[in-house]
Amino acid sequence: MEEKFKNSETHCITIEEREKLTITGVTDMESFDEDSVIIYTTLGTLTLKGEDFKINKLSTDSGVIEIDGYVDSVIYSSEESSGKSKGLFSRIFR
Question: Residue 72's domain spans which residues?
Answer without folding.
Answer: 12-79
